[in-house]
Amino acid sequence: MSTLPNWKPNTGSHWKLIKRALEYTRSNTRYILVVLACTLTIAVIGVSEPLLMRHIFDSLSGNGSIEEVLMTAAAMLGLAFAKEAIAARSNYLSWRTRLSIHHTLLSSTIERLHRLPLDNQRKEGIGAIMTKLDKGIQGFLNALSEVVFNLIPAIGYLLLAVSIMLQLDWRMTLLVLLFAPLPAIIATWAAPSQSKREEFLLQKWGKIYSRFNEVLSGIVTVRSFAMEDYEKQRFLTNVNEANATVTKGVAFDSRIKAAQNLSIAIATVTAVTFGSWLVIRGEMTLGTLVAFLAYVGGLFGPVQNLTGIYRIIRTASASLGHIFSILDTQDSLGDAPDAIELKNVKGEINFDQVYFHYNATNRPILKGINLHVPAGQTIALVGPSGTGKSTLTALLQRFYDPVSGSVSIDGQNILSLKQQSIRRNIGVVLQDALLFNESIRDNIAYGKPEATFREIEAAARAANAHEFISKLEEGYDTIVGERGSRLSVGERQRIAIARAILKNPPILILDEATSAMDVELEALVQEALEHLMKGRTSFIIAHRLSTIVKADRIIVLKDGNILEAGRHQELMMSNGYYASLVNKQVRGLLVA
Question: What letter would DSSP give residue 275?
Fold first, then answer.
């Protein structure tokens, strides 16, 4: 079984990851180019404004007229309007592009998560996976926005501004450029520490919310052990640890920002002093000095953006690493290239020398199981917990593949069939019935969304659920709550049975399907299930042996092997292991 890799970024992989990620932006190339054109136009307007200011101040100190000043001011106002209009359009297109790329990445990763082997979600934890996925996508999009919508325009502004400054006065330009690298050097020095912190926080928050998701899912267990305060304290302790890292990071970043701002302030004061001296000496006009100071104010931002590319790449690659750790997880259960649809199912099942163990333990679960099930036969699987009963049905649904041996349906090896077509032909009712936080109607119709209300109601009646549903204030439109929390265990189980009945599959798997019901209700539902199982191949997993006495064949599993097989009467007469299990269950009822 494959697992989500413990991805660690390395310098050589940064550009490869980013190059690969750019494939997800291809459908938005036109919008990205339009945004780039807009931002570059804004950069051109930005470098034009100081020149207009220079013209105004030089006019005031020379022979300029008020008309000339007003015309220049009008031009500045016109550029300001144009700049804001272009910026508004650019902002709209930027967000549209960002959301489109976000949708593309989500589509790919969510589809992948739905199809990964079960071990992947169980090992990593759903909360951790979703947190990493969300933060990973957001991190990449932030980095992409920074590069495309800020960094590239900043480079354009920088090149234009420096070329104009050189034409205005090369001495002032060289003086300013001496200070320009200082904020960039400071940012480069801080980048590794910042990237390491971001990676740590991504991992930390993933673990925090993975545990929090487990606690909320198992809130009944938490409360039954009176562990609410413990879990609250554990959660807050972990949050405080993460926040402590954030606080230290903010303090570090604040010092870095202060150092950068101080270097910019020193550069500005030096430029003002030297420029004033040149004006006093008559070697520079007042308008040129004002223009220079405007360029100095706008120069350091692009320089910092340009030198921040290392941090951006590190952040983007860390985010992409988590995204691609999902997309690149090997699917050992993928469909074969020539896999075919399973159609016209009769329901003949065959397990041929099936061996299986989970990678986590390597402890053999099934040891050479041979089991042929004719179409339409009802098979009961009994035995101690952990002996492979549920594993056998999981292999039939191809949630796992045998280590060796084969499983076939109607003579076709399931490895040659498309997985979804296999599962479409199997109805399942589990011991812990999972309902979605939707209406009862939607939950029953989950396997057959196009079902009519009449079909839904008929399925509910067959599962003995219609009566209690009708008594609810909103009937079939009642929202059941997360995991069906607004219904009793028995009510949830009957909804799950109705769901399987509506699906009307040729193969059924009932895994402790009636275990949560009282004896009277169990008898009613058992009758419905017996009607449903007629003509269908059915597997019943049960510890309550009274529910399987009518099975066509009872398979007794122990230590990964088939210990006994036969009808109830035959196994009782043989007085073997199965008979001992039955006797243990009824002994307490027979002793006064």
Answer: H
Indicate the SS3 state at residue 498.
Answer: helix
Whether residue 385 sits in one domain with residue 262: no
Task: Report if residue 491 sits inside a domain.
Answer: yes
Q: Which pair of structure tokens corresponds to residue 75?
A: 């031009």
Task: Sort 11 into a burial class: Cβ within 10 Å, 0-12 / 13-18 / 19+.
Answer: exposed
Query: Are both 256 and 359 inside the same structural domain?
Result: no
Q: Is residue 383 domain-shared with residue 461, that is, in the same domain?
A: yes
* 6 within some domain: no
Q: Which of 148, 164, 157 is nearest to 41 (CA)?
A: 157
Residue 2 lies inside a defined structural domain of this protein: no
Domain boundary among 260, 293, 327: 327
**In a shared domain, residues 288 and 414:** no
pLDDT, position 477: 92
Locate 169 and state its tokens.
């006065």
Give the count of domains, the chain. Answer: 2
User: How far apart are the C-alpha atoms of 144 and 155, rounded to whole Å?
Assistant: 15
DSSP structure class, residue 334: P
> Cβ of 559: how many Cβ atoms within 10 Å?
13
Domain of residue 381 covers 349-590
Cα–Cα distance between 428 and 555 in angstroms, integer? 19
* Alpha-carbon distances, residue 31 vs 92, 102, 105, 557 (angstroms): 10, 15, 17, 62
For the chain, state the CA radius of gyration. Answer: 35
CATH code of the domain containing 415: 3.40.50.300
Say if 487 falls within a structural domain: yes
Question: Is there a contact between 412 and 348 (Cβ–Cβ < 8 Å)?
Answer: no
Tens digit of each residue's pLDDT (9 = 90 or more) over 346-357: 999 999 999 998
Which amino acid, 32? I
H or E element in which residue 395 lies: helix 389-396
Look at 121-130, 183-192, 425-434 and tell me which has the smallest mean pLDDT: 121-130
**What's this model's pTM, rounded to 2 decimal places?**
0.59
Which neighbouring-strand residues pair with 366?
356
**CB neighbours of 292 closer than 8 A, spacing ≥ 6?**
50, 165, 168, 169, 172, 176, 271, 275
State whether 305 and 391 are in the same domain.
no
